[in-house]
Design goal:
The complex is a heterodimer. Chain A is mainly α. Chain A contains 10 helices and no strands. Chain A is globular, with a radius of gyration of 18 Å. In chain A, about 25% of the residues are buried. In chain B, the strands form 2 sheets. In chain B, strands 3, 4, 7, 8, 9, 11 and 12 form a 7-stranded mixed sheet that branches. A 5-stranded mixed sheet of chain B has the order 2-1-10-5-6. Chain B has one domain: Oxidoreductase, molybdopterin-binding domain (Sulfite Oxidase, Chain A, domain 2, Alpha-Beta Complex). Chain B is built from 9 helices and 12 strands. Classes of the chains: A mainly alpha, B alpha+beta.
């Protein structure tokens, strides 16, 4: 048995809903830490960053599913919907913490979105994810038809790229982490349009 | 200087929370002002309540020790602060390498409770102990042609993880116009709450300019240079569009990244509300330094 077969075999026993439960528990746990001093003396900013960072990581993980299968044979396809939907909810939580707890008034939220390019970019990425979250169910796949549904869900590519740009733009000075994130995102999107992503491999 | 700023406020003078809460109730009962007026008076009272030492020393920007807010508290322990010498050079009568104790010998250490406003739109109130920069400059003798003071932070690459990562063009440098430097509010802090500065707070000696954004208040200083030209400053070198030489706290001049109209005082928890940012961070007595200057041009 190859390692990828072993991994696939082990994953077969793990239901996809564990992702929803795990992520939801983590969101609640972090909020609890924020309430009780576990996130330091400025919990609003800490919570905002934690939620945003996990949202971006989940987006990247979603983009990784197809290339991972093609390159290694490891098949995470049954988790992909849960990964995508939870990434949307993480980014929604990130937005809500920013808008409600941090910026606090509607007028200021609107000003920030309009005036600050890094906020605008993040906001566009979030808006792009809304139709994807809304159609992440079997009924929508049937209604739209598989081809149109798949075409619509290619919006994850620009959303992920804009998310990476948002992260890179908001940090100050020369910081390596957001650069790595953006390179990984661009690389994963590039696999969709170059031959390296389409190498046939027996699973 | 024409006058010496006399600090007649001590921690004992701070309005206790219970007292100003009572005053709010009196206001409600007798004057019956609208909610806006009440919020205003409460915010004013609140801004003078010092943050705890734990708050002050666990939420810092000190990029030599990493870019996260808790990185300096975690990493700054490696900084070697003793022995410490400061090079004083440029247009001074008595240049040289001064041991810290020698430089400060005979000068008065004062308590100064100042608002501290970060350009990232958060703030604290810090009970500093320190020496007026003017006293130090008078001691070394400023020559008549000098117009600016330049400062430099220590670089200990082996002890500073952020220096290894080249987050900024180190050493960190800052500067003031000579009249700003000589202003009695401008402090060289050596302690907080009567304890020596924590390394993450800029031990053993740092600048405090309470009417400017926090990044002007350079930490762990090893060099002071008197010059006749405006010196380069670290964040201005990163982005001149975002960080001007003056960087006075000014709610009317927006920063490309953060609105400067409001701020959030550290320590209010998850549901802390924002308060209005005050011109010059509430230190209106410095307005005369900038008379006739367009502060949106010289931001």
């Amino acid at each position: 048995m190859t390692p990828s077969q072993a991994i696939n075999g082990a994953l077969r026993k793990v239901p996809a809903w564990t992702i929803y439960i795990g992520i939801a528990a983590w969101v609640v746990w972090l909020f609890y830490l924020g309430l009780t001093g576990g996130l330091g003396v400025e919990p609003i900013n800490a919570l905002e960053r934690e939620y945003g960072a996990l949202g971006l990581k989940l987006l990247i993980l979603g983009l990784l599913v197809t290339p991972l299968r093609k390159w290694t044979g490891v098949n995470l396809i049954k988790f992909r919907r849960a990964i995508g939907v939870t990434s949307f909810f993480m980014i929604l939580a990130h937005f809500l913490v920013w808008a409600v707890l941090d910026v606090q008034t509607f007028a200021r939220v609107w000003m920030e979105i309009v005036k600050r390019p890094y906020v605008t970019v993040g906001m566009v990425a979030f808006v792009l994810l809304i139709p994807l979250a809304a159609t992440s169910n079997n009924l929508s796949v049937r209604r739209l038809g598989a081809a149109r549904w798949r075409k619509l869900h290619k919006l994850t590519y620009p959303a992920a790229i804009l998310g990476g740009v948002h992260y890179l733009w908001l940090v100050k000075g020369f910081q390596i982490e957001p650069i790595i994130y953006l390179i990984v995102i661009l690389g994963l999107v590039a696999t969709r349009y170059t031959s390296i992503g389409w190498r046939r491999q027996a699973v | 200087m024409a006058y010496r700023w006399s600090n007649d406020l001590t921690r004992a003078d701070i309005t206790p929370k219970s007292a100003f809460l009572n005053r709010r109730q009196i206001l409600v009962g007798t004057v019956g002002l609208g909610a806006i007026g009440l919020v205003g008076s409460a915010a004013q009272a609140q801004t003078l309540e010092p943050n705890t030492l734990e708050e002050i020393t666990s939420y810092n920007n000190f990029y030599e020790f990493g870019t996260g807010k808790t990185d300096p508290a975690q990493n700054a322990g490696a900084l070697v602060t003793s022995p410490w010498s400061i090079k004083v050079d440029g247009m001074v009568d008595n240049p040289g390498d001064y041991g810290l104790a020698d430089l400060l010998d005979g000068l008065t250490v004062e308590d100064r409770i100042y608002r501290f406003r970060c350009v990232e739109a958060w703030s604290m109130v810090v009970p500093w102990n320190g020496i007026e920069l003017a006293d130090i400059l008078n001691k070394v003798g400023v020559q008549s042609g000098a117009k600016y003071v330049a400062f430099e932070t220590v670089v200990q690459p082996e002890n500073m993880v952020g220096v290894q990562r080249r987050v900024l063009d180190f050493p960190y440098v800052e500067g003031l116009r000579l009249d700003e430097a000589m202003h009695p509010l401008t402090l060289m802090a050596t302690g907080i709450y009567d304890e020596p500065l924590a390394n993450q707070s800029g031990a053993p000696i740092r600048l405090v300019v309470p009417w400017k954004y926090g990044f002007k208040s350079i930490k762990s200083i090893v060099r002071i240079t008197l010059t006749d030209e405006e010196p380069p400053t670290s964040w201005n070198k990163v982005s001149a569009r975002e960080y001007g030489f003056y960087s006075n706290v000014n709610p009317q001049v927006d920063h490309p990244r953060w609105s400067q109209a409001t701020e959030r005082k550290i320590g209010g928890g998850l549901f802390a509300s924002r308060q209005d940012t005050l011109m010059f961070n509430g230190y209106a007595e410095v307005a005369g330094l900038y008379e006739g200057m367009d502060l949106s041009e010289f931001f």
